[in-house]
Predict the 3D structure of the following.
Amino acid sequence: MNSITARRRHPLARYAVILLALCLVGGAYALLSPTGDRADAAIASGTNDDVANGKALFEANCSSCHGLNGQGVPGNGPSLIGVGAASVDFQVSSGRMPAANSTGPQAPRKALPEWVTPKAIDDLAAYVQSLGGGPTRPTADMVDPAKGDPAKGGELFRANCIQCHNWVGAGGALTEGKHAPNLNKSTPTQIYEAMITGPQAMPVFNDTTITPEQKRDMIAYIVKVREQVDPGGSGLGRIGPVTEGLVGWVVGIGLLSLASIWITAKRRAKTK
Amino acid sequence: MSERENTGTPEERVPHRVIGTPQPGAPAGVATAGEPDTPATLDGGVRELEPGTGVIYPDPASARRAERLVALLFLVAFLAGVGFIVSYVAFQVGDIDRTAVSNLALGGTMTVAFLALAIGLVVWVRRIMPKYNLVQERHPMASEPEVREEVSRIFAQGAQESGFLKHKLLRRTLLLAAAPLGLAPLVLLKDLGPLPEDKLRHTVWRKGMRLVVEGTGQPIRAADFNSPGGILSVVPEGYEHDLNALAKATLILIKLRPEQFKSGTNLNWTHDGIVAYSKICTHVGCPAALYEQTTNHILCPCHQSTFDAADGAKVVFGPAARPLPQLPITVDSEGYLVAQSDFQVPVGPSFWERGDAEAEVRGNA
């Protein structure tokens, strides 16, 4: 016991604790987070078993807001008829749904509840797809960033997305407390699904005006820009002039003031 | 450590002299650091400073430490300077990533070099050089009274002899001659640029011009843009990369359910729930395109002006004074979206001679 107490006060102990915590969080995240590329259009319609299983999950976890048959509950949750498997996968795999206990203007990305496994999402998606069709989930090939052209995607991204999501996908503010989320945590599949389904306040970018290939280009751009390093150190949130100006004023001018105080201060003669 | 310190008040020990003049009783020079207790010698061994002049020498041990520190800093500056040259050669530019590395290396080494040099110099001044107070005296800057008297006398004599006051004709023609030359610079202001004429009132949109997707240049079939809650950034066909034209002509195209429209929207200018608004905010001209499909609000990111897309882009919040102008659109024989005409009112922010263009349009209708 004594030896533990002694080690606890070791100068390196805090780093060890932080490292341990990081490993735990990272490991848990890796276990829980969806893999993203398991999607397959063939599964989207689902077998009867999946649909039945999905219905059971739906009734247990979703029906209080969306109605027992997904028809919606006025003032509580919208109808899910025709929203499609893509919408279900996006909302559930990013933790936005179930939104039951979330307050405020926005359903934010959050940790997944325990019952949300890739299989559960597949079943739920199959069930909602069976209600009235809608956009299906993209295949792994459709969202593979390696196959897209980031330069072309960047042009489309700058024309259609940066007004809300910022030119490097850092997100930004909307009206009445809503905000466009940061895209750094989104998987390519989730980005694709968000474009075709238009979750929450986001508008829809359907496949007939922005083709699937163009969507893949945009995903390639988002992933590419996310991987780019900030050679000067901190990217300051990569939101541009606001944080950069603030840091410039506070840190830069602060240091200059301190330096000028140091240069001009009278050196007090030592009295001894 | 016996610092050479004066017990008197600061005023008493201040050597009264003007900057740049020799110190009374001591020729100016650089005092060697150290040996404050033995008589300090000046460069050239002229003579020691008198005690009581208020000159304080640093403690010799501390001065020696400072000397080593300064030398170290200068060495760091030297190495960083060499590092700058080396990094210029070593880190070649070419693509974004390599340019970033090169910038970091060049900027980093230069920062270290100048910073080390500057800190070294300040430490040198603060911890090695002797200290004393200086008073710089300021005197009135006017000339002596005799000089001023003489000048005004000469001026009066000249005025008298020229007869400027007496010869009315000469005086008036001289002023007349000077007047156009004084006004000439005002005329040159015209060269600042041509007048805008009516360019601010028109964009490149005209009847039958196709709407194309910004970034890809594809024309848009109305039947393809069929998901309610959709938005597209749209430019005129043939002007996809003409930034001067796009500065006024860029649109946002929004698809709503036909029943969502309110009275503010001109339904004759929409097609099957598709409505086109100018992307240029009517406040100060930022691109206003943050569209929320749940509320149909279009938000301008610069100053939070908010427009209702279902109600003719009416201002619902923020500093904008007018709705975003709506472009009349329809479809051509192949089903592609085209403009019916140019905007009926000027797009973008107010300008001096804009007038109430909306009222004029209503008057014509």
